[in-house]
Amino acid sequence: MLRIIAIHRYFWPDSPPYASFLRQIAARWVKDGHAVEVLSGQPSYASGQERSPATESLDGFRIRRLPVMRDRAGGWRQLLNLVVFPLVVALRILTSRRADVIMCSTVPQVTLGWAVSLAARARGAAFIYHCMDLHPEIGRISGEFRNPLVYRILARLDLATMRRARRVVVLSEDMRRSVLDRDAALADRVVVLNNWALPDFSEPEPAPLGEPVPGVLRLVFAGNLGRFQGLERMVTALADLPEEVRLEMVFMGEGRAKPDVEAAAARIGHPGVDVVFLPHGSPSAAKSLMSTAHLGLVTLVPDVVKYAYPSKTATYTTEGLPLLVLCEQDSQLASAVRERGLGWSVAAGDTPALVEALTDASARLAATGLRAERAAVGRFAGEAFDESDILQRWSELLTGINEPKESP
Questions:
Q1: How confident is the model at residue 403 (pLDDT cuts 50, 70, 90)?
Q2: Domain 3-196+387-397: homologous superfamily in CATH
C-alpha cells in the first residue's frame, strides 16, 4: 500500500475538467488499496459557487481544501495565488505525515510543480508531474509570460521540476516531443496518458436546445471560450459559406474571448448561418446538447497543439459526435481525424479550407446523415478514450515508482 498525496488548485465540485478527472484517479488508487489525500482549494472557478468543507472524505479518500482567493478575473489575486497556494501546499507536505508518492498537475502554472517537487524530494517521496498542458510555452502563446526574462526563468524552473519527477505524464505524442525538446534525457520517464470523456457526477439533464431544423448542420463547441481557440476568426469565416449551406453554430460556455466571438457573430450577415450562445452548463447538459449536434468543434491557435491536447475531443467522440478540427495538420489529433475518417481537419486560419469542409459536411449530412463518420468516431473512442483502460494505466503507473533510481 502506498500513501499518496494528489494536488490541484481546483477539485470537484469545482467545474474545470481536471477537478473531476482527479476524483476518478484518486478513487481508482483507493480501489487498488492505496491511501490517498487530495490537496486543493475551495471551489472558486465559477462565480456563485458554494464553499465546501475544509476537510471531508469522498470515494474512500480524504480531501483537504486550503484557503485561496477567487482569481478568475486575473490581476493581483491571480498573481498572489500563483505564489501563495504552492507555498501553502509545500508547507503542508513538509509538516504532515510522510507520503510515498506525491502528484500535482499544472495549475497554478510552473510554481506548483516546482514547489511540490522540492517538497517531495525533501520528504523522500516519488514525484509525479501530471502535465495537462506545458508551461511556460502555453503562457508565452497567451501573452501571460511574454516578458523574455520571466519566460526564461519559468522555463528553467519547469525543466528542473521535470528532472526531479519520477514520472512526467503528458496527453499526446506532440506534448511528449515538446518535453524531449527541453531535455532528451527525460525520455525514460515521460508517459503519454490521455484523458477520457469528461466525468459526470450529477443527475441527467435535458439538452438546452431542441433538435436542429432538418437540413441545418449543427456545429457545437462546449467548453471554455478562451484565448487559445481562435474562435473569433473561425466565426468570421462562416460569412464565406455558400448561400445554400445552412448552419447553426452553438457555443456552450463562458470565457474571456466570448465578447469578441459575439461581436464576430453579429457581423456575419449570412442568411443561412445562425450563431447561438448558451451559458456554461453541467457535463450532463453538455452531453445532451452533443446528442443533438452533427459536428463537434475543436480549434486551437497555432502552436498550442504542441503543448496541450483538447480534452473535449474525448467527450465528443465518446458521445459519437464527428469532429471539425482546426489545428496544425502534422499533429497527432489532425492525423487521427484524417486517417480514421473522424470528420474534417483543416489548418487554423485557412478560411477556404474551412468553408470547403463545412460545405462537404453539409452535403454528406443530406446524403448519408454522417453515418460513416459517426461509426468511425465510435470505434476510435473505444480505442483511444476508454475510461476503464486509462484508469488501469493509472494503476500501473505506480508500479515500481518507489524503487531507487539508478545512478547515471
A1: confident
A2: Glycogen Phosphorylase B; (3.40.50.2000)
